[in-house]
Amino acid sequence: MSTKLPVLRNTAQLRQLVQQWRRRGHKIALVPTMGGLHEGHLSLVRLAKQHASRVIVSVFVNPTQFAPHEDFESYPRNEERDWHKLLSVQADAMFAPDVHEIYPADFPLLHSYQTSIGIQRELGHDIVVTVDYARRVGVHVNLGELDLNRFSRTADGLSPIIPRCPTTPDFTVGDQCSTGGITFWVPEGRSVYSGLLVKAQKRFSKRYQFTASYALQKNQVTATGASLVNLDNYFASYGPNLPRHNLNVAGVVDMPWGFKLSVNSSFISATPVNPIVTGIDLNGSGNTNFPLFEAAPGLSFNCFNYGCGKPDVTQAISYWNSNVATAATGKKARNGATVPTLALPSNYDFGTPIFSQDFRISKELALKERLHFMAFGEFFNAFNIANLTYSATPVLNSAAFGQPTGRVGQASTFGSGGPRAIQVGGRFSF
Q1: CA-to-CA dists, residue 89 to 1, 9, 86, 374, 406, angstroms
Q2: Which end of the chain, N or C, is less surrounded by CB atoms within 10 Å?
Q3: How many domains does the chain have?
């Protein structure tokens, strides 16, 4: 690689070069890439050269853009080939930092502190009871890629943090303005799980065994991404996201003539929900799915099905209609929309618990010494309980508010909690 196209490895080198160019009056453009350059990238470099006298191309494979199941290490990289391609289109500098330059060692990463304490007691009759208390605190939870320039509030007629440019794109040297969002990964969230876990287990004897487990739990998290409505206070959207109660009882009984009966019963309480009003922005965040708790006192994030109920939403809507709605105040939302007056339907719900009762009966036959065949029949949700699903963000200004959206497992043929189903099958083992 020659000095005709310098390769910059750190931000200090980048700043030094940019300052030199600016002192000489150059207009500078940046073309960000993740390497693996092709004609599409090169066309962007040519376009940048039409508007600027110096063009920098960054080549950086960003690890935060890869999901856990995607292979960051196998992403194609060939820096020398990319360099030659940039040289061919007369780029002026290549910025190719390593990960530690962009994400330094002291960048706060998600980690957790975990505590567990428990006791175990044998009660006799082959029954053992275990009680555990578990607590897990997650810190530096990633809230997602947030626009700290708050550019989306320009839809409300408000200025972003860096004033909006009069034209887009703006190639005027010296203009101190912005034409879009400036996003950062924000590791400022928190999660706290606390659970009392109780389990009673009977070892197999006298032809049967069973396990009963119950969790009294609370998992509070900071909402992420688009669910963050108050960008001045991330923890306004901090609350529970798991059902409070989870009970499961399962057992096996040896029946006459070699049959075996398995039973599984489960109960899960309703999931916390967060009612919203769509089409309005009341705080200038640019998010037009506005949660009721942000405007009405006495509520908190995801408190419904978790301490808040129908009397609370009735009181909150009364407050909304008297103090927030345009009909009462004469004021519109930040985005210019009319703030609607809300009315609750005569019949609605925030969600219901999930019940399921599953049975399985099987019989194994020894055909030969090493050849066995098992026949079985399974009965899912034997009592055909509806187990309706509801939206986690029910829309108050919609006719569908508080109405079920489907049934648990309706997209699949079989499954615990879904529509009643029967399955018959067999299995050879040898």
Answers
A1: 15, 21, 5, 69, 56
A2: C
A3: 2
Assess if residue 350 is contained within a domain. Answer: yes
Judge residue 239's burial from the number of C-beta atoms within 10 Å of its C-beta, 0-12 exposed, 13-18 middle, 19 or more buried: buried
Which among 152, 151, 238 is positioned nearest to 190, based on CA atoms?
238
**Residue 198 token pair:** 């109780």
Q: Is there a contact between 410 and 425 (Cβ–Cβ < 8 Å)?
A: no
- Measured at the CA of 362, the angle between CA 356 and CA 364, to 5 degrees, comes to 160
CA angle 226, 230, 231 (to 5 degrees): 80
pLDDT reported for residue 414: 62
In this structure, the answer to whether residues 404 and 268 fall within a common structural domain is yes
- Average pLDDT estimate for 344-349: 94
**pTM surpassing 0.90?**
no
Question: 161 vs 172, 224, 424, CA distance in Å?
Answer: 19, 21, 63
Picking from 87, 102, 117, the residue at the C-terminal end of a domain is 102
253: enclosing H helix or E strand = strand 245-254
pLDDT tens, position by position, 347-367: 999 999 999 999 999 999 999
C-alpha 316/C-alpha 329 separation (Å) is: 16
Token duo for residue 183: 């996003």
79-88 and 39-51 are packed helices; what angle lies between their axes, rounded to 10 degrees? 40
Domain extent, residue 238, equals 207-214+224-429
DSSP letter (8 states) at residue 338: P
Residue that terminates a domain, selected from 102, 119, 150: 102
Mark out the alpha helices in 105-260 (DSSP H runs).
none
Instruction: Please check whether residue 177 lies inside any domain of the structure.
Output: no
Q: Which residues contact 38 (CB under 8 A, 6 or more apart)?
A: none
Residues 6+ apart with CB under 8 A from 200: 127, 128, 129, 130, 211, 212, 213
pLDDT in tens, 369-403: 889 999 999 998 888 888 889 999 999 999 999 99
Q: Is residue 242 part of a domain?
A: yes
